[in-house]
Design brief:
- The chain has two domains: 3-93, no CATH class; 103-148, no CATH class.
- It has eight helices and two strands, in the order αββααααααα.
- It has helices spanning 8-23, 43-46, 51-58, 62-74, 77-90, 104-118, 121-138, 145-148; strands spanning 34-35, 38-39.
- A two-stranded antiparallel sheet has the order 1-2.
- The longest helix has 18 residues, at 121-138.
- It is globular.
- It starts with 7 loop residues before the first helix and ends with a helix.
Amino acid sequence: MITFHGKQEIKDALLAQIEKHRQADEIVQGYGYWRDGKGCAIGCMVHSRYHRALAKQIGVPVAIIYLVDSLFEAMPKIPARSWPGRFVGSTPVGVDLAAVMVEQQFVHWLLVDSVRLVGHVKTNTLLTDCAALYRLWIDGAKPSYKEYT
């Protein structure tokens, strides 16, 4: 799986679509994925609620798509409007991002940094617990399956 299936025109078309939604103020937090021509970061890119469909459409691991969605919902309103375009714009054409989500240190950083962004007690507890397990893994321990569930 390579980003935008190696085609700049796929990226350019998606950026144009996102910009059209941004200018029309159709990128909305807390609204749902896609309805009545409006939606979240994911909805405005794929015009549905299906993260896997977007992942397949642009050649990005679905875990990254969920991360894009989570960060969008956690951001302040103004920067959130430009987030889908910034994500797509910063993603290079023709690279394999599969290894990014496997790298334990990167995932640990995402979890720890997300605690700062989210600001929701229950979610932050889950993120912190998961980050602690990744820290054990990074340090050479092998947490049991039971610890992960």
